[in-house]
Write a structure and sequence with these properties.
By secondary structure, this protein is of the alpha+beta class. The chain is 48% helix and 9% strand.
């Protein structure tokens, strides 16, 4: 993504690739898929597109639980209302411009984890870490928990260097690296170094700047902008509304307005609480409510002589295709059911002897369960779709592209193809 300002030094871990591609670093055929050994040996970070699926798979591979990345299609308040809550942070992709350094804090405030980006193209991982390391209730996984603790007293610059040297994060980030990505990154780094030596123009950094991810988070009752290319976080003011996302939207829109129409493209991603957590918890409560009220209802009918005692254990609701216990398909465990808390309304039913009212409540819960299970299936399908997209992106198709181009060349269609590509 964006190159760093001149005032920021390169981390030593990223300098190894500054001399450009080496014949010893890669296989002789640049179209051949990158091997795991080549990715491991490579010192750089690959560019990653603003595709929520890639970020979701990265977070899962990091070991992070309970968070999901979703695209923000519009900053209109009505559209933002559809985002699952809570929203832990926003990631904004734009063509980077350095802001007034005076807007930044003199130093990183206590209680905020912030890292600089000291390695080219690492901004996707840096933006993610700058958000998730500021969410106390999030389960980060063993590796990131240890990393957060290890870097707790570091400066932002040292944290950035630590990320560049953190093989665990680098390996997951570069699992998306294709051979041509690695070669292009090496060449770009070499060209950038050459350009910086030859050019002393004040606007050279801005002209050569690329796309860059920055983060926005609510911490300590304030909204913060965390840009890894800036030395320190920027305080955007206290949270004055119930929804901090609505408060930060004008800040992002102001940045968008700085560019001419059609000149630039933007992307906004949100980190929200994994919707599946709330859905499964609701299903657990639903199952516990149905089974509890149903058993109470059958007991009353039995006491009144309206039902044979053996009917108490009869699972006659199976015919309605109801879920009445744990189920792997819906990620529902017996522990979740046992820990579910019934609503006051349903607790009241367990003290009632109104058979008609209880039967109506059970019917309502049954109807609601159908909708819950459909929503859970949709979320599980979305996770699988993320996995498929990530797997496709990780599949290095260099040889396939080379083969197609060779076929076009043999058919005499290469010139037509190139002219069409240039004109589109």
């Amino acid at each position: 993504m964006a190159t760093r300002p001149k005032r920021r030094r390169l981390a030593k871990s990223g300098d190894a690739s500054s001399e450009g591609p080496s014949s010893r670093a890669y296989s002789q055929d640049p179209s051949a898929p990158a091997t795991n050994e080549e990715r491991s040996r490579w010192k750089g970070f690959c560019e990653i597109e603003s595709e929520p699926a890639f970020f979701n798979v990265m977070l899962r591979d990091f070991g992070v639980e309970g968070v999901r990345v979703q695209e923000v299609v519009s900053l209109d308040p009505d559209m933002l209302a559809y985002l699952p809550r809570p929203v832990y942070g926003l990631i904004f992709l734009f063509k980077w411009r350095e802001e007034d350094p005076d807007k930044q804090e003199p130093s990183c405030p206590e209680g905020i984890w912030f890292a600089n980006q000291t390695v080219n193209n690492a901004c996707a991982s840096v933006a993610l870490l700058n958000i998730i390391n500021n969410i106390p209730e999030l389960k980060l996984g063993e590796h990131l928990e240890q990393f957060k603790e290890f870097t707790a007293d570091f400066t932002p610059a040292l944290r950035g260097d630590a990320i560049g040297n953190f093989e665990f994060v680098k390996t997951i980030h570069n699992s998306f690296a294709r051979k041509m990505d690695m070669l292009n990154a090496d060449i770009q780094l070499k060209n950038d170094a050459s350009t910086r030596k030859k050019s002393k123009a004040k606007d050279s950094d801005e002209d050569n700047a690329g796309f860059h991810f920055i983060a926005f988070i609510p911490v300590q009752n304030k909204v913060w902008k965390l840009d890894g290319l800036e030395r320190q976080p920027q305080d955007l003011g206290p949270i004055v509304s119930d929804d901090w996302v609505l408060q930060v939207a004008p800040e992002i829109e102001t940045r968008m307005a700085q560019y001419e129409d059609g000149q630039i493209e933007f992307a906004i991603l949100s980190l929200v609480k994994e919707p599946l957590i709330k859905l499964v918890a609701a299903l657990a409560e639903n199952v516990k409510s149905i089974t509890s009220i149903r058993r109470h209802l059958l007991q009353i009918q039995s006491d009144r002589g309206e039902l044979q005692p053996e009917s108490l254990d009869r699972n006659d609701m199976v015919e309605q295709n109801l879920l009445l216990g744990p189920c792997k398909q819906y990620r529902l465990s017996q522990e979740a059911i046992d820990q579910a808390v019934l609503s006051p309304e349903h607790e009241q039913q367990l003290k009632s002897d109104d058979v008609v009212a209880m039967s109506a409540v059970v019917q309502q819960l049954s109807t609601a369960q159908t909708s819950m299970r459909a929503s859970i299936r949709d979320e599980i399908k979305a996770i699988q779709t993320d996995d498929d997209r990530a797997a496709s992106r990780r599949n290095d198709k260099g040889l396939l592209a080379k083969g197609l181009l060779q076929v076009l060349e043999r058919m005499g269609r290469m010139r037509i193809f190139m002219e069409s590509a240039c004109c589109s």
